[in-house]
Amino acid sequence: MATTTVNKIQLRIQNKRTQGFDQGSRVLTSNLESDLTWANGSGTSEADEVWTDNITLGIGLFNNLDLNALAQTDALGAADRTVDFVNIKAMMIRNTSAADYILVGGGTDCAGAADAWSGVDTPFSTDAAITTVPAGGVFTWVAPIGGAVAAGEILGIGAVTSIQTFQILLIGDK
Hints:
Layout: E1 7-21, E2 24-38, E3 49-57, E4 62-66, E5 70-73, E6 79-83, E7 87-95, E8 101-105, E9 130-134, E10 138-148, E11 154-159, E12 164-173
Antiparallel strand pairs: 1-2, 3-12, 4-11, 5-6, 7-10, 7-12, 8-9, 8-11
């Protein structure tokens, strides 16, 4: 039986600022939002693959995600299949820890390795490019054309100063 994918990506940041006066108040509302729906496929604004996981890392440990060989478990916890991305078009990483940060990027062990998923069409412009996601923070990247994934490219994620838990979701093309 064929599997199809429909992806809905909704991002919204809203701020409401109220200033009180003697005879009333003024309200300034600022919004920035994006609402995308991508059909099944491998073209621009399309995707046909997804990978997600909840991960816990010990102090000083790294999870080196081989973007061509991501194990996916089914809803019952059994090994289901291997995800092999050709392009990644959306990524969300949420640090669910109460304290400290995680490192994201830089290839193996977030060390700026030559195997890093990087380039001008990815969120990491060079092999050494790394971002941090603080406790309770969210890192999101969306690109309708996607960031190409070459054979053996690694997305490194590391816990430096304490045990860290995070959720990750990747959407792209197989």
